[in-house]
Specification:
The complex is a heterodimer of chains A (about 230) and B (about 110). Chain A is an alpha+beta fold and about 230 residues long. Chain A has helices at about 25-40, 70-75, 100-110, 130-140, 145-150, 155, 165-175, 180-190, 205, 215-230; strands spanning about 5-10, 15-20, 55-60, 65, 80-85, 90-95, 95. The model of chain A has no long low-confidence stretch (mean pLDDT about 95). Classes of the chains: A alpha+beta (about 230), B mainly alpha (about 110).
């Protein structure tokens, strides 16, 4: 098969590279090949190469993806790839974005586990099949790759919006029986930039490489915030 | 439009349809009230009603009813999404909302006077 034509974002425009097409090649393989063989100044980020670390996400042909688990044969159109950095995050150089703001929002969303009162020494007994635990378990496999955040048009329109990943994290804690501050977690996501800003466009759930459902998590937060408000807890 | 490729899925199209139908209805509403206000002057109201008998206006009315049905069904879908426990049938519900819109257009056309 002919070479791939790969347009890579270089900050002030695209640079075109020709890369040999190989069987079972991933988009990350293509970017690495360019850096090793054509232009060592190309900047991008990766670590594990097996879909666990969440560092290699980029925009491939207009769609945010984890590049290490994305096969070229699945996404190339007529042998062409267009690779850009993730949307909604400041670009450091080429394909590497600054994810600090993205992770700061996990803190702002109250994404930190709050232990119950000190002095409780027994293990918390949590039935893995109870409804709350199942909701929490469904959301905890997030690898923090930023694909959902990049796919979200609400983040693009409102830079303060906490975004799908941070809210998904908050939802796992709201459903965690061991957490000691359920109302605190709800209060952290109840304002303008929190769960109520979501328009349910569903791009986060659509593109999440781990098939998590931040849209459902945010809908759950909206519901629980409303319920807490009715009960006078907020 | 590669820049928008991430938007090409049913839930995003449902969002766009809901937003555009809402805007169109909001623009229509003042015109609707303006015409109703002319009802106190019988002659001008009758003249306007006569004008609406044109086939093109009938078609526009059918589209309007379609937008209303689409926006209402979409609104019910969103209420269900936000207030009922999550269901994986969202795509089916989106299809039903669009179906309600098209059904309303067809029904209105069928009921229009020839």
């Amino acid at each position: 098969m002919a070479d791939l034509v790969v347009n890579v974002w270089r900050g002030e425009g695209f640079e075109t590279f020709r890369v040999p097409f190989l069987e079972s090649q991933t988009v990350l393989d293509v970017v690495t090949w360019i850096q090793r063989h054509l232009d060592p100044t190309l900047s991008y980020r990766f670590a594990c190469r097996v879909g666990m670390c969440g560092s290699c996400a980029m925009t491939v042909n207009g769609v945010p993806r984890w590049t290490c688990r994305t096969h070229v044969s699945k996404v190339a159109k007529d042998g062409r790839l267009e690779i850009r950095p993730l949307r909604n995050m400041p670009v450091i150089k080429d394909l590497a974005v600054d994810m600090a703001g993205f992770f700061d929002k996990w803190q702002e969303a109250g994404g930190r586990f709050v232990p119950t009162r000190p002095g409780v020494l027994e293990f918390a007994r949590v039935d893995p099949e109870n409804p709350e635990r199942r909701q929490a378990s469904a959301g905890i496999e997030c690898i923090g790759c930023g694909v959902c955040y990049s796919a979200c048009d609400v983040v693009a329109a409102n830079p303060d919006y906490l975004g799908p990943a941070a809210l998904n994290r908050a939802w796992t804690l709201v459903n965690d029986a061991r957490d000691g501050d359920r109302i605190g977690h709800l209060a952290a996501v109840a304002d303008d930039a929190g769960c109520h800003a979501c328009h349910s466009q569903g791009s986060c759930a659509r593109h999440c490489p781990n098939h998590l459902n931040p849209t459902g998590a945010i809908a759950g937060l909206k519901r629980e915030v409303f319920r807490a408000l009715l009960k006078g807890d907020l | 439009m590669r820049a928008a490729a991430h938007r090409n899925h049913p839930a995003w199209w449902a969002f766009l349809a809901h937003r555009l139908s809402g805007l169109a209805l909001a623009l229509f509403l003042p015109a609707h009230f303006l015409v109703l206000a002319t009802a106190v002057e019988e002659a001008s109201f009758d003249a306007f009603v006569a004008w609406t008998d044109r086939p093109l206006v009938k078609l526009a009315e059918a589209v309007l009813v379609g937008l209303l049905a689409l926006h209402m069904a979409g609104g019910l879908r969103l209420l269900a999404l936000e207030f009922l426990p999550w269901s994986d049938t969202q795509k089916t519900r989106i299809a039903l909302a669009f179906g309600a819109g098209f059904a309303a257009v067809l029904l209105t056309l069928l009921m229009a006077r020839p």
